[in-house]
Fold:
Amino acid sequence: MPDRTHKTAAILSIGDELTLGQKLDTNSKWLSEQLVMRGVTPLVHVTVADGLEVLINRISALAVEHDLVVMTGGLGPTADDLTRQALADAMGDTLIEDEDALRELHQWFEGRGIAMPDTNRVQAMRPTRARCLKNERGTAPGLQGVVGETDVFCLPGPPSEMHPMFETDVVGSLRPEIKILTRVMPTVGMGESAIAQKLGDLMDRQRNPLIGTTASSGVVFIRMRYEGSDEALGATLLDEAKGQVREELGEHVVSSEEESLPEIVLSLLTERREMLATVESCTGGMIGQVLTSVPGSSSAYAGGFVAYSNEMKVGLAGVERSVLDSVGAVSQECCRQMALGGREGTGADYAVAVTGIAGPGGGSAEKPVGTVWIGVAGPDGYESIRQFRLGRDREQIRRRTVTNALAMVWMAMTGKGEMPLLWEVFNSES
Structure:
């Protein structure tokens, strides 16, 4: 391989299913995160359909402009898997059959008691000046070659195969020019524009560390990145930047580490040896799902009720029928009784309840689509019941409900129960 350092990278994702919107490209995001952590800056993400000429042209062009190209997809055994041939053409090379790769393919099928189809033999092909990368999880060997002076890695599309191959074969070949260190701090209760106004000059694009923001369903992540040759200095500067951010944003900072809200809430509960229960209507179990996706959640999540119908609200959560008849399910009092009933029914220290109109139908002038009540009941008579208007898109409403519900649990546990949240309705009627 050439001695050229890897300062910049291009990520190339291949497949009709990606360009046609039939499948989401999560590989580019993951690869970018991994490269940045190791001092290589991705500058472009490119997605191309299954076509030989366009693929050859893209590889060739990206190799001119970048030090490293990482490709995913197109290594299968079918006629539309063209990565091998495209790499060979971009290298000005021809394909040969790799004996070791072919033997490993046979062993993969034999280990599963299956005769290898002849169509899979093509997966053992490689350019003469490239090498095959062993695939421990599937039948598609990766490839490593050089186009001009640029290192090119071709990895399988399935993340379960791509991730370990990247760790095994790409990481050890990287030659970063600088060190890149990152820190992430999640916040709640402020939008990106308000945060930008608060942080002011700290977000100047000429600063090092560079500070920016990204938003996701109500959580705004403050992202800090140091680029330089002195790793110790970078760590010190990042710690200083974290302190400045916390000083400016105060109680809105949920954590000093890159953690999700479910992780933060569960960690705090576990530390305090307390339990949380959920009572969900419009989210249909989404809060419980994000909590139980965190390993070890059973130590802090007691469980919950999905009380979607009025009958379930009465039967599971103990909501009084008179409340449903008088003010309806999407109301302050119904939400309050759901939270109290969830806490009593499970014996948990905290219970969070949500009830609302996720749409697209069911709204009214008084309670439009996107109206959601969220309530938290906790120890010593703690109650917080809030109303939100979360937009008109059903999935967006549900995601924002999950975020604000967990934010309210975090606020209840940290004594920040009065802090306003995004999309909250103030001075509202029940």
